[in-house]
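Notes from the pairing session

We agreed to fold both candidates in a single pass and log them together. This is the raw record for the first candidate, unedited. Please don't reformat it; downstream parsing expects exactly this layout.

Candidate A
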Amino acid sequence: MPKLKPDTQRLRRENILDAAHSCFARGGFHATTMQDICKAASVSPGALYVYFDSKEALIAGLCERDRAEFAERFASLSTAPDFLEALTAIGEHYFVDESPEKQRFVVEMGVESTRNPRIAEIFMSVDKFCSDSFEALFQRLKDEGRIAPRVDVPTLAKVFNVIGDGLFWRRAIEPNFNAREVLPVVIELVGSLLNPIEPMSMDVPVSKNREARR
């Protein structure tokens, strides 16, 4: 059998991950079988096992893909001149634009992590990566004088995570939940905790400029 080209292998792997994601979100980790995923991906068991040898390996692949996507989006957030505006755009992506299936998958994996040590290791590593990324960003913004948080930065990051988890849960379980309605309020709440500091105006009176140079 001729060896598949790298692009073909990548596309097949992504197709399998997409199928696994749908199966896990719909049926849960335990009820989903490798055969279910083969059927959803339209591949043979032999083809599936070339890429993933277990359901845990599939979860690892899905979580790593999510981590990489988050890292890419976070990079634009961390360099944005208007942090809250950029945060709103990310919130709209994860809580408005994405299918609720994504939230159901995250909730399912979170619950499974309480029973399966291997899933816990995979799931919590991604969760920690996201949490640490925001904590480091908040600390940098504070150090740069761009925010004056009303609580210490580690606590702020934990509260931020709780708010995000709540949005994930609500969207996963409530079919008619409209995140677009509540997102502006959530951003306002986060903003009040971050307490952004307005940059100094460039339109400073001449007398003050002279005083500053003395």
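Candidate B (folded immediately after A)
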Amino acid sequence: MIKVITYPYKLTLLLVVVTLFSCSKEEFDIQNLNGNKISAFGHGGMGNRSTYPSNSYESILKCLNFGANGTELDVQITKDSVLVAFHDVDLSESTNIAGMVNSLTWSEIQNAHYKNPLYTSYSIISLDQLFSNIDNLNQYDFTFDCKLNYGNENIDTYNSRYVNALEQIITKFNLINNVYIESQKEDFLTLLQQKNTDYKLFIYPTSFNEGLDIATRLNLFGITISTDYVSKEEIEIAHSNNLYIAIWGIGSKSANSDGIKKNPDFIQSDKIKNLISLLN
């Protein structure tokens, strides 16, 4: 007797085949200065679409625990020279207090909380607190996006305070090999370079050509740039000039994949879990 294969069986077999093909891992031919691998960085931790506020301890810790190589974080300096992880120009934009970080002391800021109803249990964290509470700290890398909000302070005085505070935190936690420092300001990067030639410094330009000019002229470590403003070919040019490239503005799974294909050295992603899965 001939056994007839029923339609449900055929449908199940088709679904299995489709699933196998859809789950096949995308292959990438990565060629860069970073040992032909891309370091996966969270953007402010888990990214700006996370259940945690960007730059919070909880967001950063979850990012690292997922298996990221490290994370980018926004860094500002208080009136009394404490470095904090915070993005906005004025605290009132996202917290329950007002004023620029630079105009307030750490004691005036540390009890502030985020005002988004989902985030009210989360507070601003200092870099000292952050690094004191990460196990196996030196197995991770960190990019400091230095937000230079001068307010009414003299620029030279502000830059000097900031550079000294960076030196202190990097020295305290032995992070000289684990920190990348990015800024849009040439004078700030030059001052850092004068402080320590071992700092890995990145210019954060408005265009690739501007970044290439500044990075080569100042002999910087690299360029940080939005993925929308740089092509694979331009990244190849940077690499030929021995400049590392970090890209950001990665807000979707498809952007992760497209970013990888450009062969940067570092990707700062708002979809860090997906990026990790693509690279591993």
